Amino acid sequence: MRIIIQRVKKASVTVSENVISEIGQGYLIFLGIEAEDTQEDINWLCGKVARLRIFSDQNDAMNLSLLDVGGDVIVVSQFTLHASTKKGNRPSFIKAARPEVAIPLYDGFIKQLEKELGKKVQTGTFGAMMDVALVNDGPVTIYIDSKVKE
Question: What's the predicted TM-score (pTM) here?
Fold first, then answer.
């Protein structure tokens, strides 16, 4: 399971010209799921997301977590995080989980993150064409892979 976290001042997701999710300060998370992912990956990543200290404190040091600042979250499914560009110029997405595997893991990630944060998490629409808008705060963008755990 791979995620891209973008610390945002605001973000939104639009599907078919309708805004379906919108937040102020918080995280926009792009979530890539592969077939080998499990509840262990979900638990580890959600704990990391909730406690990751990338918001500035009173001294402008990245020392505060999403929990500390009461920030909001939008999670957007993004299979392209598992793109392989090893051969040729057309990416392969063979490692990305098929919908029958990915959807339950996506839903599980959202439920676990809501549990960690004690609040509702906004989402995109799985498999839909989405327009994602954001104002990246910093910019701060963090990549985390549950298989690597760095």
Answer: 0.94
